[in-house]
């Protein structure tokens, strides 16, 4: 089946913007729903994209969006939620209820392909509500068989210009002389947002991607402390990093939860008990992942000489 029209759910965010640009460049017609059209003006420049105001959590609206669509890419995800059992309401809505609605609406509309973005470490018995809800979302997508060919992608933490991971630490390092860090020993294998977009695009085209789950990661793992110290180096704001034992990390996170748009939650700390590292090849189909060191200096180090020098060194022949 030729994929011509793609419904891109969650397409207005950091990862969604990269995926939309990649699919538009390949000539795909995109339908991108958003609850606030004025917030996604950057997508209006894409020549094949139609941005519409809609609530994808409303089954009736979702059914209308599915009309005439060949494939769906689901990027919806949240990092924070009020607590609950087995997970809080925001996790339940974004990670479980929306995938269930997508499968129902896609089946009724005759859509034959879904690419679903989950998370590395998703597990029904995971230590955090985030990871458990991601696993149940995957189960909802897998229930689409045999009517719909699904592909599930499990990225590690995603980096790139505009990310909320490395940029978060860059901001903290600018503001504080010392950084107490929960989960300092947690392991991550950051994947470049451009690589994620490339895999999404290829997954839509490959018949053998249907019914498969793939991990997405970068070339090598790092501890969280290593990543923070590297960000300090390339931004010109090196700071002492003080690793916190989990008890203090949970206390720190509990205090941060009181802030609007929390930087960290206790559930995030629990998620870091699981290594966020690929179990095999970092990318499918023999793809070679982009190194963090080849990209991060270009957007984090753009305002300091050390960052510019590092970027120059990495791009020398």
3D structure, described in words:
It is a single chain. The protein is α/β, with parallel strands linked by helices. The chain has a domain at 5-159 and 190-216: 3-Layer(aba) Sandwich (Rossmann fold), CATH 3.40.50. Helix content is 39%, strand content 17%. The protein contains eleven helices and 13 strands. The strands form four sheets. A seven-stranded parallel sheet has the order 3-2-1-4-5-6-11, sandwiched between helices. The protein has a two-stranded parallel ribbon with strand order 7-10. Helix 1 links the parallel strand 1 and strand 2. Helix 3 (89-109) packs parallel to helix 4 (129-142) and helix 10 (292-300) packs antiparallel against helix 11 (305-314). The chain is globular and about 55 Å long. The chain starts with a strand and ends with a helix.
Write the layout of secondary structure elements.
Elements: E1 5-9, H1 14-25, E2 29-34, E3 49-53, H2 59-65, E4 71-74, H3 89-109, E5 113-117, H4 129-142, E6 149-155, E7 158-159, H5 166-175, E8 179-182, E9 187-188, E10 191-192, H6 193-205, E11 212-216, E12 222-223, H7 224-235, E13 241-244, H8 246-256, H9 266-271, H10 292-300, H11 305-314
Parallel strand pairs: 1-2, 1-4, 2-3, 4-5, 5-6, 6-11, 7-10, 8-13
Antiparallel strand pairs: 9-12
